[in-house]
Amino acid sequence: MANDDPAAGEHPGPVARGIDVAGQIETHGIDYIPQADRHSHPRNLAWAMFGPQFGFGNMVFGSLPIAFGLSWWSSVAAIVVGVLLGSAIFAGVCIQAHRTGTNNAVSSGAFFGVTGRYLGSAISLFIGLGFFALLIWTSGQTIIAVFDRAFSTGTSNTALTIAMIVVGVISCALAIYGHATLVATFRFIAIFSFATSILGVAFIASHFHAVHGGNYLLGSFWPTWFFSFVLAASLPISWGPFIGDYGRYIPERESELSTAAAGFIGIVAGCLISELIGAFATAAFKDPSTPFALGFPQRVPLVIAVFLMLGPGGLANIESAAMSVYNCALDVHALLWRISRAQLTTGMSVIGVVLAWLTLVHYNEINSIEAFVTIMLVTCTPWMVIMTIGHLMRRGRYYTLDLQAFAIPGKRGVYWFWNGFNWRAFVAWGAATGLGLLFSVQSLFTGPLSSHINGVDISFLVSAGVGGVLYWALAVLFPERGVVPGEPGGEEALGMAEPATVAA
Fold it and tell me: In DSSP terms, which residues pair with 441 in a beta bridge?
């Protein structure tokens, strides 16, 4: 294998040594992480994906099947199948970052082109801001509900807004400190929030009843079940574009199997337990349509409600919100790489708070969550599948310096393709997204092809399958010359003036 730090001494920008210590502000952004700074381990991926799931903002995804009219066992089936499938798709994008030394948006340049990486940044920005808004909103709801029980402070929109701003500020501060500080808090928050959630479940267990369902949100069983399955799958899939933010600190010597397994185990365990807690608690509500972040704390004794506010309603949500805005800022950094990560984090936090207030407080557009999830899955899933297939076809080998070509004046590199875009990946992604939307069923619009399958939403399954198969076929029929180090047709064959360093 060649030099661990590509271009070291030749182009110091992309491989500069940086600070990544708990309690200090991380200085790395989307630049290449030198091997000397790779101090993480695959097990940290498991903790990173397990810990933040025990927040009310994530438990909501498990509460919705009960609220939609499914029975208890139908809800459990939708959650289990959805989480397993979503986690399998997620595991496919756990294997790039420790090979490329950067996050997934920049890594996607190997498949979509150096300029085409903007697509990954846009998808990540959409997901990050959406989840940040959802998380600070549910935290705000929990805080005002518990404070009202204890001090009769009321649950007005003004109180909710203040609570959301406080949560947003704390999340922003944690995100600015960055990777090492976030990793250092994973275990404590995971254990505390998990234990508190189980304690809350124990106190409402006597109210639980295996609901029989029947008043289906979408009129009949299968459309409602599939919609619940899609929501369950969306939680693990939503973390896919961001796993590279943590994987980039794992040494290159670690195997792909260990990183994929660690990510899969962490996301399955976290999402499955979290969503099942959400479903169980909702089945114990007097009215299953009660917003989860309000209903759970109201159903338990006040002292337990305080613990729920501190744990899953507070710390876990804050951790997830901090990760969302941290991830979001890193991906925007791939666009605005001359601005510091800390500045971008602050800006993204402000935008996220305003977005949450406008959509969920001022206009009360709760249905926007449904549309957000559908659009997220249809656009994000084929992007992830294309990256996974591309990585496997190239056997995990990259020209790591060329991924950073946008930061090196005058450099294009092997991933320039056609004017910075790989048309194969974009044709596959565009066709997959377009066809997926034709099968979608959500509040903004209903795809014309959904009527042929009785209103069942299979949009993200269609987009995932079409995107993967089409990209593979195009890459076989029209080979991507020179993109695999060590094979004929490298940079020299492409007429590049500057050979890149190979990362095996």
Answer: 446
